[in-house]
Write a structure and sequence with these properties.
By secondary structure, this protein is an alpha/beta fold. The protein has one domain (about 5-200): Maf protein. Helix content is about 30%, strand content about 25%. The protein has 5 helices and 7 strands. Strands 1, 2, 3, 4, 5, 6 and 7 form a 7-stranded mixed sheet that branches. Strand 3 (about 70-80) and strand 4 form a beta hairpin. About 35% of the residues are buried.
């Protein structure tokens, strides 16, 4: 039986938590490099008005500056009672000096009187590989809790309760979060693409 050919892909992120999640999902014959690994130290602009647009911007930046095959994700938390906010502005929802804690505080404050706490996480992965551009989307439906729960994860994980679970993302082991979560769903579509069209 022939060994599968190793492929190298850049994951356009400097977020070690994202990198760890994605490495857990990828087959061993796909070698993953971070932006740091390719010595990309610039702040890649994320100025698009959609989650898809920001993912594409990051991929195009790496492709144009480094000529490497690459994928990038962008993720947003969409809260129904807030009209889909914070959405594309999830990382900077609380302003220019936003932190995860400040963003969570703002969401909880804005939902203080809301009966409807339904929400979803949406991840879009853009990829360029051997001249072909692709998009993969993963959505996880759930709701916003009334207070923080759990110490794991990052971002809004302590206040997001997936529909199919009694644990927030911040209470789950990483393997479980990858199984039910938005990023894991999008990554499995990317891996399926590799399996069907590239790694035959």
């Amino acid at each position: 039986m022939n060994e599968k050919k190793e492929h190298t892909l850049v994951f356009a992120t400097n977020n070690p938590n994202k990198l760890k999640e994605v490495q857990l999902l990828l087959p061993s014959h796909i070698k993953l490099l971070s932006l740091k690994d390719i010595n990309c130290l610039e702040d890649i602009p994320e100025t698009a008005h959609t989650i898809e647009g920001n993912a594409i911007l990051k991929v195009e930046w790496v492709k144009s500056h480094y000529k490497l095959d690459c994928f990038a994700d962008d993720t947003g938390l969409e809260v129904d009672a807030l009209g889909g906010s914070p959405g594309v502005y999830s990382a900077r929802y609380s302003g220019d000096n936003a932190t995860s804690d400040k963003n969570i505080d703002k969401v909880l404050h804005n939902l203080k009187l809301a009966e409807d706490r339904s929400a979803r996480f949406k991840t879009v992965i853009a990829m360029t590989f051997k001249g072909t551009d692709s998009l993969f989307e993963g959505i996880c439906e759930g709701s916003i809790t009334n207070f923080r729960r759990g110490e794991k994860g990052f971002g809004y994980d302590p206040i997001f309760l997936p529909t199919e679970s009694t644990q927030t993302f911040a209470e789950m082991p990483l393997e479980e979060k990858s199984r039910v979560g938005h990023r894991g769903k999008a990554m499995r579509l990317l891996i399926e693409y590799f399996s069907q069209y590239i790694l035959k």
